[in-house]
Specification:
heterodimer, A: alpha+beta, Arc Repressor Mutant, subunit A, 3-stranded antiparallel sheet, 3 strands, about 50% helix, globular, B: mainly alpha, 2 domains
Chain lengths: ~120, ~190
């Protein structure tokens, strides 16, 4: 497995997909919904962006397919589910740390204020 | 627009993506599109603009990736026909060397004809090398085959200009085989395109 740092920086779409899969496996539309809800619709992944990113994530071994099953909340169509791999989790953590250090730098420069609880 | 017609229109848009990508993700993308349409409300115009933008932004990049994969698939030609074509290239190369040697003996070793026949011997050696590369399944085999075939076709034009009494058999062999070789490499690449 390559060094997780070697894949950084991730594109915003890629990081959002990994975040969506960090807590549970989801199918494509569920990933789109999770990203839209979490970002209050500031980020909306279109099908092309989502599946183009998923293709690359699968090729890089950051995500894997789990199985194909119907989502009871939607319809009877069987959908392919995706889950994050251990390596994908390492890459997502490395990207989160990278972004955290950027935010700390922005705070030091007083571009943004202190985070409130 | 009904859901059925919307899905048909989206299927047309999906044709902007590479065939292999559509084969793997087309159904999933259509399902995601159906879900988006279901939640789009009564006026899906905004959704269509967003979807069209998404396709326009992502399809060229995926096409470029598929093209890069196509270029890098030079080495993945089918093994059995590759060996047959390699053996044929070696045979044709050897027969051209024999033929050129006979022509050289008959025509003498001076002037343009001798130069052209010598060039034919060099290119025959190149053809044999390409044939051996095909037999060995080397990654350089398709490129060597193409160079060899194109050089042979160029040589035939040159030969016909300065050495018009080249035998019909040798001319045919020098024209037909390079074309067959070029066609084989082209088809081999198309068959392995991702």
């Amino acid at each position: 497995m390559p060094d997780p740092e070697s894949l950084l920086p991730l594109t915003p779409a890629t990081f959002h997909i990994l975040l969506a899969l960090a807590d549970e496996e989801r199918h494509g539309y569920a990933i789109m919904q999770e990203v839209a809800e979490r970002t209050e619709s500031a980020v909306k992944l279109g099908p092309g962006t989502l599946y183009g990113s998923l293709k690359r994530l699968l090729e890089q071994g950051l995500v894997e397919e789990s199985d194909e099953r119907a989502d009871p909340a939607l319809d009877d169509e069987r959908r392919r589910y995706y889950r994050i791999t251990r390596f994908g989790m390492s890459v997502a953590r490395a990207e989160a740390r990278r972004l955290e250090s950027l935010v700390r730098a922005a705070r030091r420069k007083k571009l943004i204020g202190r985070a409130t609880a | 627009m009904s859901t059925r017609w919307s899905e048909r229109a989206y299927a047309l848009l999906l044709r902007a993506y590479p065939r292999e990508f559509r084969r793997v993700y087309g159904r999933e993308m259509t399902l995601a599109f159906r879900d988006l349409m279901r939640n789009a409300g009564v006026s899906p115009i905004g959704l269509w603009i967003w979807i069209a933008t998404d396709v326009a932004r992502t399809a060229p990049a995926l096409r470029a990736e598929a093209l890069r994969a196509r270029w890098s698939s030079n080495t993945r030609m089918e093994e059995r026909p590759m060996r047959k074509m390699g053996a044929l290239a070696v045979l044709v190369g050897l027969s051209q060397i024999v033929n050129a040697s006979v022509e050289l003996n008959a025509g003498g070793t001076a002037g343009w004809p001798a130069l052209v026949v010598s060039l034919a011997i060099v290119l025959s050696v190149l053809l044999i090398i390409a044939g051996v590369a095909l037999l060995a399944g080397a990654s350089s085999a398709p490129t060597l085959s193409q160079i060899s075939a194109v050089c042979w076709l160029a040589l035939v034009v040159l030969v016909k200009a300065v050495y018009p009494w080249m035998s019909i058999f040798a001319t045919l062999l020098a024209v037909v085989f390079p074309l067959v070789l070029l066609g084989y490499v082209w088809i081999g690449r198309r068959m392995t395109v991702v």
